[in-house]
Amino acid sequence: MTDFQNLSEDELQAVILNAEKALKAKQANKRKEVMNQIKELAASINVAVEFIDDEKKSARKGIKVPVKYRHPNDPSKTWTGRGVMPKWLQSLVEQGHDRSEFEID
């Protein structure tokens, strides 16, 4: 077994990635085996089996939401308008500004 204490961070990350890939491959193979067994059992009693692939990723996952608000003095500070309002915008609103002043056209 490998002594993980003596590995660098990059080497540890590589070990983790390889282990995750190996685990996913084993799980996929096991799933295929079980599905084949189910198909064989179903065929033995003249029943058709159809599997629905629920592993497809959501079409919305990973879609970037456009920026809706930008800090007037620091353009690197932005907000999409979703989730918790950032502190920079919160403080400006508390100072009496309207949120719509910082909307991007």
TrEMBL record:
Keywords on record = Cytoplasm, DNA-binding
Q: Where is the DNA-binding protein H-NS-like C-terminal domain?
A: 57-104
Q: Which GO terms describe its molecular function?
A: bent DNA binding; DNA-binding transcription repressor activity; minor groove of adenine-thymine-rich DNA binding; transcription cis-regulatory region binding
Which SUPFAM superfamilies does UniProt cross-reference here?
A: H-NS histone-like proteins (SSF81273)
| Pfam families according to UniProt | Histone_HNS
Could you give one GO CC term from the UniProt record?
nucleoid
Its annotated compartments are: Cytoplasm, Nucleoid
Q: Which domain of life is it from?
A: Bacteria
Q: Name the Gene3D superfamilies for this protein.
A: Histone-like protein H-NS, C-terminal domain (4.10.430.10)
Q: Which InterPro entries match?
A: H-NS_C_dom, H-NS_C_dom_sf
- Name the family: Belongs to the histone-like protein H-NS family.
Q: What is this protein called?
A: Histone family protein nucleoid-structuring protein H-NS
